[in-house]
Amino acid sequence: MIGLGIRLALSGGRGAIVGLGLTSLAVAIGTAVLLFALSFAPALADRDARTAWRDNLRPTTDAVDATLVLRIEDRVDDQLLTRIHVAPDGDPAAAPVPAGLPSLPEVGEAYVSPALARLMGDLPSDQLADRIGRVAGSVPDAYLASPDELVAVIGTEPEVLRAREPYAVTAFETDALALELPLIGVLILALAAIGALAPVAVFVATATRLSAARREMRLAALRLVGATPGQIARLAVVEALVVTSIGSLAGIVLFLVSRPLVARIPLDATTWWISSISPPMAAAVVMLLAVQVVGAIAALASMRRLVITPLGVQRRAAPSRPAAWRIIPLGLSLAALAASVALFRDPGLSEVERVGMIGGAFAAVIGAIAFAGPWLTVVVGSVLHRVARGAAALLAARRLSDEPRGSFGAIAGVIMAVFVASAFFTFTAFARLQAGSDVDPLLREGGIMAYPTGGSSLPSGIAETVGELDGVIMAVEVRSVALLEDGEFATDYGWVASCPDLVEVLGLVGASCAADGVNLLGSADLGGTYDVIPATAPSAGTAPRLGVEIRPDPSRALLELPADTRAYVPAFLLDPSAFAEPAGVERLPADVLYVGTDGSAAVGERVRTAVVAAAPDATVRLESERVAADSQFAEIGRIVGLGLIGTLTLAGCSLAVAVTTATLERRRQFVLLRSAGMAVGTLRSMILLQAGVPLAAVAIASALLGALVGSGILFVTSGVLVLPDATVVIVIGLSIAVAMAVVAMTLPPLERMTRPTSLRHE
Amino acid sequence: MTTYLAAAPTPVERAAPAPILVATDLKKRFGRTEALRGIDVTIGRGEIVAVMGPSGSGKSTLLHCLAGILRPDAGTVELEGRRIDTLGETERSKLRRSSFGFVFQFGQLVPELTALENVALPLLLDGVSRSDAEARAADWFPSLGIEGLEHRRPGDMSGGQSQRVAVARALVTGPTVVFADEPTGSLDSLAGEQVMELLSAAVASSETTVVVVTHEARVAAYAHREIVVRDGRISGVVAA
To answer: Using CB atoms, which residue from B69, B89, B110 is nearest to A229?
Structure first.
């Protein structure tokens, strides 16, 4: 029986092979998606394990024979560069060494990742290598988050590190911290997995239908020669297992083949090691077995719906016309979603419960759309029937009303994709809102700013050093200060910097500096004799100070600034000329350096290198990185985009298969219609109308629902009301256009298939 | 295996054969339509019986009830004295496999299987090994004039060839009764006659009973007896 089942599944001629191929492809895509889903957590865990030696730093209070570690996130060439400055604290021979390195690098030496070594070779030393030092060796792959990661372990003077609050570690960990994805991240991933699998399920169902009529005929023929219902069920299971086995194997191959491509998709600005994307063996085996079991159960379930008699196939019961109550589960699932969203912040629920609840409700909404779809199709058919003028519209309307399940089945994939797309474009709109920038909005094009980390100050003379670099137009040191009057803080904090230079470097068009050097940037009531101390000073008593006398002037005007930058400036700006001894301001520590450049990438790297060489812990931000700071949004957008391409491709395949199946099933009817004089063009119009009208109507409804669901989830979880951006309109328009193009592609063979001369072969 | 192609219809005077298939007061309804309204019929061993009548008269329904494909709403069907109308689906399937053979108008061959595999199919379903089943099936090909077509699929054969394969499949298990529903309906007259010659000659030597539904006099000419069905009742029995 098994052999017969395999032969029946595999030797059905071209049509059956196409059906088998498509169904196997659907199973393969589903299997691959599931394998990637299973691989996600292990990939993150592997990444964390690889970087545990630098991420999981535990400070020790026993400062004996420790290693001082200072980790700085720098940038180069629009990429993240992680610099890990290390120095022995105590006996150098006893200082622990980071995992994978033979020894601590000497001062001025560094161990670098292979990608960084390559980049150092590509860029002039004043743009990168001078930040790193002489390369002493490589950081092994096993200790890097990704093959593209830029990491340097740099030997540094202990004194330099001690001044910057380093970690003193007695051992470098190799165990990762417990994996902690933010809840919203887990939720988005869970919803994405559900959203991705829905079109796969539709594709499997549609592809199965392609060969269903032929299969049912075959099973009837078997019953005629005496096959028992049990034997028929066993045959159906064997056939299903052939498909799921081939599909699963193809899915494994698809997973392995597409793994290098998926590894290129960055998450958290980091790509993946290909080997990291590996599902746990036990889970993968269970999943692959589950695919077989589900396939077998689906085959048996389809047998339950049919009674295969020797005289052909009879449906167990004539399907009734879908009624309006089919909309009820949609309402209930939306209510469940609203409830689960409302409970999202309930502290009494565990994270798993919350995510499971909201993910389950989201899946229920998708299922409810599929359930309500046939009724909506009936409604669309009724409306079309009322407005129909020609034969094509009339036939299409009747077909929609009489066979709404089949008609909706054809477009279900696209509808699912549109729902998922509109929900996710709401998420991406949210992500864009949230993608704040740590780049000072005051920076103009080509501008750079540098600031110290951890309350230290920039080295004196840094403006002069940077100002001499090739491509730099001007560098201005800014000192944040507070004013004390009789030992008490008199105003909000302000800046001390050369006003004309600052106006120029920030490109403040129209701003004119006050003649007495005292400029108002915000509301400040200045007038009197003040002590000027650094704004970051731990206490007023110990800070270096400088005296200044400011003449009260009620007519003092605000310095002209672009309106959107007003929130980012302090209350006042004192030019050195406001002080009795202008040169004395250099006693105050500089905490911001604004640099104007010609805007080239090279000068940006040069400035970074010069600043970092002088102050390893300084942060340097380029105006051009404003876009890069949106990388999280770009990442989510890219993942959603890829997901959409995948789901829409699947949906398009489902639609093509469904339209082809429907045409094949109705071939005789079409031939008779043509024999009776119907033009083939009218037939084509009918097929297009039948697919297009419900597609457009239900897609718009589905998109609105998706946006509503996405906005609802975000409103409750984040308190922000977000609507999807215009992209969703483009996506829906494109989806419908692509879907109709797919339908149109199936039309050319219609003329040949429905020639009246083929009637005698029927 | 004898070659039957040269055989011709030779109706002869026969003694009344022993009854093998007996139907009593058969009634069958499809919705509001009464297909059979109380039919009594007795068919003897080795007899060839033609069931004739206009379209919609109930002749195919009668054949389906006699063959255990349909279960009558009322009345009984006995095969060699054993009630078959009360059997469950699985038992009736086994009965069809072991005791009956079928030749229908079209659509009876499994398109995915070759001619040889189609003929071997009832044996395979009965648990016979593939090699044995195919060997037994292959014996029928020369005698039915379809030698050389063993590895063709139904789609690659003519209507006449397909029907001969169907005859071979109907006979491969050595059935007690062969049921044929319009076996020549989709064939031209020459091919139709060839099929009927083969069928009648093949069963002659083995005492196999044949019940053939037809509305063609040419086909009925091969029968020992004609039963005429009209409006779900037997309106006449004509000895050939």
So the answer is: B89
Cα A461 from Cα A613, distance rounded (Å): 13
Chain A segment 121-150 residues within 8 A of B by beta carbon are none
More confident residue, A241 or A19: A241
What's the rounded Cα separation, in Å, for the pair A413 and A655? Answer: 7
CA distance A227 to chain B (A): 6
Does residue A475 have a pLDDT over 70?
Answer: yes
CB contact under 8 Å between A7 and B121, yes or no, is: no
Domains in chain A: boundaries: 1-51+184-318, 54-169, 325-436+642-762, 447-628
pLDDT confidence bin for A118, thresholds 50/70/90: very high
Closest CA to B82 of B92, B97, B69, B93: B92
A18-32, A202-216, A514-528, A545-559: least confidently modelled range: A202-216
> Alpha-carbon distance B103 to B112, whole Å?
18
Min Cα–Cα distance to chain A from B64, Å: 9
Is A309 in CB contact (< 8 Å) with chain B? yes
Start-to-end CA span in chain A (Å): 32
Taking CA atoms, A157 is separated from A19, A90, A111, in Å, by: 69, 13, 16
Q: Give the whole-angstrom CA distance, residue A78 versus residue B122.
A: 72
Task: Say if the Cβ atoms of B110 and A228 lie within 8 Å.
Answer: no
Among A435, A436, A423, smallest CA distance to A727 is for A423
**Dihedral, CA atoms, A67, A70, A76, A81, nearest 10 degrees?**
60
Across the interface, whether the CB atoms of A225 and B122 are under 8 A apart is answered: yes
Q: How far is B83 from chain A (nearest CA, A)?
A: 18
For residue A534, give both structure tokens: 């650094």
* pLDDT at A40 (0 to 100): 82
- Cβ pair A284, A36 in contact under 8 A: no
Each domain of chain B, given as residue ranges in start order, spans 19-239
> Cβ(A139)–Cβ(A113) under 8 Å?
yes
Determine the average pLDDT of the residues in B142-161. Answer: 86
pLDDT tens-digit readout, B35-91: 999 999 999 998 999 999 988 889 889 998 998 888 899 999 999 999 999 988 888
CB-nearest to A310 from B69, B109, B121 is B69
**What is the nearest CA distance from A10 to chain B, expressed in angstroms?**
8
Instruction: State the pLDDT confidence band at A257, using cuts at 50, 70 and 90.
Output: very high
pLDDT of residue B3: 42
Q: How confident is the model at residue A190 (pLDDT cuts 50, 70, 90)?
A: low
Percent of chain A whose predicted confidence (pLDDT) is above 90: 14
Taking all residues of chain B, what is their mean pLDDT, rounded to a whole number? 84
Q: What is the torsional sign of CA A95, A100, A102, A107?
A: negative
User: Which homologous superfamily does the CATH classification assign to the domain defined by B19-239?
Assistant: P-loop containing nucleotide triphosphate hydrolases (3.40.50.300)
